[in-house]
Amino acid sequence: QVQLVESGGGLVQPGGSLTLSCAASGATVDYYPIGWIRQAPGKEREGVSCLSTSDGYTYYEDSVKGRFTISRDAAKRTVYLQMNNLKPEDTAAYYCATPCHPWGKPDFWGQGIQVTVSS
Q: Which pLDDT score, from 0 to 100, does residue 30 have?
């Protein structure tokens, strides 16, 4: 059974930074792409970033390129999303999920964590 537990969200001012963490358990997380999906109120879910664990390739949604960085600590089975220069439009519930776009559709989700960017 795969379990994904997010942490690190909160309230931050525009231009600020946050790092989200996703602690994963279950054997499959070592072999499948894992990443982040967000959903803002009244909007569709969108894939933010995804890491292909087999080869290290990364995917970023266009609006976060150059601002967000996904990384993984394999020993800790934890995936991180470093978010810099945050904008109000980044406000959303962020979910850790595996697999993830563009390498698959999620089968497993975390409970989600809120990120609010506001002055």
A: 77
- Cβ atoms within 10 Å, residue 71: 13
Q: Are 80 and 71 in contact (CB under 8 A)?
A: yes
How many CB atoms are closer than 10 A to CB 68?
21
Give the pairing of strands 34-39 and 68-73.
Answer: unpaired
Single out the residue of 28, 48, 44, 50 nearest to residue 90, CA to CA. 48
Q: Which of 89, 73, 78 is nearest to 14 (CA)?
A: 89
95/58 Cα distance (integer angstroms): 17
Q: Which sign, positive or negative, has the C-alpha torsion 79, 83, 88, 90?
A: negative
Residue 32 tokens read as 């499948």
> What is the average per-residue pLDDT within 22-37?
87
Asked whether 104 and 96 are in contact (CB, 8 A), the reply is no
Q: What is the pLDDT of residues 74-114, one digit of tens each?
A: 899 999 999 999 999 999 999 999 999 999 999 999 999 99
Three-class secondary structure of residue 63 per DSSP = helix
